[in-house]
Write a structure and sequence with these properties.
mainly beta; Metal Binding Protein, Guanine Nucleotide Exchange Factor, Chain A; 15 strands; about 0% helix; DUF427_sf; DUF427 domain-containing protein; DUF427
């Protein structure tokens, strides 16, 4: 059994509660160092990102598509729709000899208020060897739809696990 929103974890100094994030989501710039490894290869190392913060969700980091090593991203089939950000396209991610199908997404024409996501890509941490934020290894968000990045900086409970869809 998973905690309910009523069992909100109280943030300690230096932490954020995902229950204090807004709905609709907020996009904010971040200078944290984001490093992603797949197939034993570092495919991304950047301090240029934006975080999307939405009630009950761990932050999702969007990084410049151009920051990935050459050949790391290829178009994948499928799309999805976010009521706030618009239509998302998917990308497969390659590092070393591994390929993670549809492990990244982007908004080619993000909705009003989310224009800063244009030209940026988000990744599912569970599909990578590792993702780090300022040197801390990210824990993936439960479930198979959301791509939140959990670090010691954020507390929940987090949406995504079975039984949390209605949050």
């Amino acid at each position: 059994m998973h905690p309910s929103p009523a069992q909100r974890v109280v943030p300690q100094p230096g932490q954020e509660s995902v229950w204090d994030y807004p709905r609709p989501p907020r996009v904010e710039p971040s200078a944290e160092r984001i490093v992603v490894v797949l197939g034993g290869q570092r495919i991304l190392d950047t301090t240029d990102s934006v975080r999307v913060l939405e009630t009950s969700h761990p932050p999702v980091y969007y990084v410049p598509r151009a920051a990935f090593v050459s050949g790391a991203l290829t178009d994948a089939r499928g799309s999805s729709f976010c009521e706030f950000k618009g239509v998302a396209g998917y990308l497969s991610v390659r590092g070393g000899t591994e390929t993670a199908p549809s492990a990244a997404w982007y908004y080619a024409n993000p909705s009003k208020g989310f224009e800063s996501l244009a030209g940026r890509v988000a990744l599912y941490p569970a599909s990578m060897d590792s993702c780090t934020v300022d040197g801390e290894t990210v824990t993936r968000q439960e479930g198979d739809f959301y791509g939140g990045w959990i670090t010691s900086r954020v507390v929940g409970p987090f949406k995504g696990a079975p039984g949390t869809l209605g949050w």
